[in-house]
Design goal:
- The protein is built from twelve helices and no strands.
- The protein is mainly alpha-helical.
- The chain has two domains: 112 residues, no CATH class; 129 residues, no CATH class.
Length: 281
């Protein structure tokens, strides 16, 4: 039994440096996209976070599993097929248990984590702004004279409303820029740690560094936390603008939002390079 688990662990780690290693990044990204879409739909429908709902609602568990499979099932099947191909190429044999483990880690785990997280983030930013049914609209309550010529108080109130909306948008921009600085610091610090110890081959060969994999693991953790935090902050930023009605009406694509997307891509590339010891960096 111990030999079997040792073999499984060794072969799972060998996938990081073996052929078809880019799937280790691509498939979690695909699962994350489906998780974000489903999580936003859950928040809009008023459903509980997905993973918590699976644990706390046994009566709806079957339906929730079917809904999740409908969303991420294709990614899971693709992960199964690609791992079978990998084993045929690299091992010349197929271990079904390892195929299921790898597919579960690449497809199901990120989906379970992100779908509930996105639902919670969307709920914290969601505001209910409904008008009572018996409240007359502005157009029906205003007379013809008021429509033709508004009084000064109404004009000032509308101008103040526009200014308040503008201040809220700017506050969201400042918050997103703060998250960009935080993510850049974590990604840059993690990558620097990895590169610093990478260029100490003599020390590694002499055995002076007790745990040579520790800097790489710390770098992966910092880069992943920084990138995921910025992804969540960017999603929260867009939800805030959607609640204000600015994204649909004014088509706001701010500089900070574009920079955040670019930093997320850089973080994903850095994580890929550190994890697989290859890539553009």
């Amino acid at each position: 039994m111990d030999q079997m688990w040792t073999r499984i662990g060794t072969q799972l780690l060998a996938r990081v440096s073996g052929p078809m290693k880019f799937r280790l990044v691509l498939q979690p990204v695909m699962a994350s996209i489906f998780a974000i879409r489903s999580g936003l739909a859950d928040a809009k429908a008023g459903k509980p976070p997905y993973f918590w709902g699976l644990l706390s609602n046994p009566g709806e568990r079957i339906d929730m599993i079917k809904d999740g499979w409908k969303s991420v099932g294709k990614v899971f099947v693709l992960a199964l097929v690609l791992d079978v191909v990998y084993q045929i190429i690299a091992i010349r044999f197929v271990y079904p248990g390892e195929v299921v483990i790898v597919a579960f880690i690449l497809a199901i785990v990120p989906y379970l984590i992100l779908r509930g997280l996105v639902t919670r983030l969307a709920r914290t930013r969601k505001t209910v702004s409904t008008r009572p049914a018996n409240t007359p609209s502005k157009e029906s309550s205003m007379s013809v004279a008021e429509v033709i010529q508004k009084d000064r108080g109404t004009v000032l109130a509308e101008e103040r409303t526009d200014l308040a909306l503008h201040r809220t948008i700017i506050a969201n921009e400042r918050t997103l820029m703060a998250w960009i600085r935080t993510a850049l610091s974590m990604i840059g610090f993690g990558f620097t740690i990895y590169k610093f110890f990478q260029y100490l081959p003599a020390e590694l060969a002499a055995g002076n560094i007790r745990r040579p994999q520790a800097p790489r693991n710390l770098a992966l953790a910092l880069i992943a936390i920084g990138t995921l935090a910025l992804m969540a902050a960017t999603a929260q930023h867009r939800l805030s603008l959607n609640e204000l009605g600015t994204s649909a009406k004014r088509h706001i694509w701010s500089i900070s939002f574009v920079v955040a997307i670019l930093v997320i891509l850089i973080g994903a590339l850095a994580f890929y390079g550190v994890l697989l010891r290859s890539g553009p960096f």
